[in-house]
Design a protein that fits this description.
9 helices; 7-stranded mixed β-sheet; alpha/beta; Methyltransf_11; 11 strands; methyltransferase; disordered N terminus; 20% strand; transferase; globular; Class I SAM-dependent methyltransferase; SAM-dependent_MTases_sf
């Protein structure tokens, strides 16, 4: 996808200020290009735009397994902010919980551009967290240099599939959350898979088995049990529970389910 390439090369070439200016310019140009879609019955809770339709996902065949994503990229992307259905599920939840979240300080692991747009549009207080220099806080999610029970809200969407020790990451998020704190989590899941599949595969095998070369596993429905075992009280929020106009459907047929897990400590 063009945005992925922009992020990759900008981070290598530019300093932080130039990176964000380049990205801002890219989306300003994109909005002009896709202005014909603005104004309609569809709604993106990430950027807040009403649009006529969602557009196809421009996947890179050398990065994404086409057979798994074949139906996933149809009528999927917001033409303005590039949000995916799973990101709109999370944004719909954030909108509904605005009165609660606006009083909290939020730690957001590896936010997408659409996620950043949502947080800034709503005026929430948040910091990005990642291993890379462009995050507000450089943090290893498996070993956080953060005191116990010091964070009020954590957002972590499609991160754990990249993490070698994902259970350790969950335990760490539980540790740093305050009592009563919230973790909003999503992971890639096969719709009919009960147990999480994981093995020490090459990038080529990961691409074939899990859909992307940089995915170390694909999660099953047992992720809810794993979260519960780590101490959380877990409530799934499914895409079909969100307003239909936001395009937060469950799907596609063969890859992933658009679901987030709201986990309370």
């Amino acid at each position: 996808m063009v945005l992925n390439n922009l992020n990759r090369y900008a981070k290598l070439i530019f300093n932080q200020k130039m990176y964000f200016l380049a990205r801002k310019y890219y989306f300003a140009v994109r909005k002009k290009k896709y202005r014909k879609y603005i104004g309609g019955e569809r709604y993106c809770p990430c950027c807040g735009n009403h649009i006529t339709e969602f557009i196809d996902f421009e996947y890179r065949s050398n990065h994404y397994n086409h057979q798994m994503y074949e139906e996933h990229y149809k009528n999927t992307i917001c033409p303005v902010c590039c949000s995916l259905p799973r990101q709109r599920v999370a944004a719909s939840y954030i909108e509904k919980k605005f009165d609660y979240l606006r009083k909290k300080e939020i730690l957001f692991f590896a936010p997408s551009y659409a996620g950043e747009v949502c947080m800034n549009r709503l005026g929430l207080t948040w910091q990005s967290a990642d291993l890379y220099q462009f995050a507000d806080r450089k943090i290893d999610i498996q070993n956080m240099d953060i005191p116990d029970e010091s964070i009020e809200v954590i957002l972590c969407n499609h991160v754990l599939e990249h993490v070698p020790e994902f259970k350790l990451a969950i335990q760490e998020m539980y540790r740093v959350l305050k009592k009563g704190g919230i973790l909003e989590l999503s992971v890639p899941q096969f719709p009919n898979q009960i147990y999480t599949a994981q093995d020490g595969h090459s990038k080529e095998e990961n691409w074939k088995l899990y859909g992307q070369a940089d995915h170390l596993r694909i999660f099953g429905l047992d992720i809810k049990d794993t979260l519960t075992e780590c101490g959380f009280t877990v409530t799934p929020v499914w895409g079909n529970e969100c307003e239909e106009a936001a395009g937060c459907r469950i799907g596609p047929a063969d890859y992933d389910i658009d679901c987030i897990y709201v986990c309370e400590k």
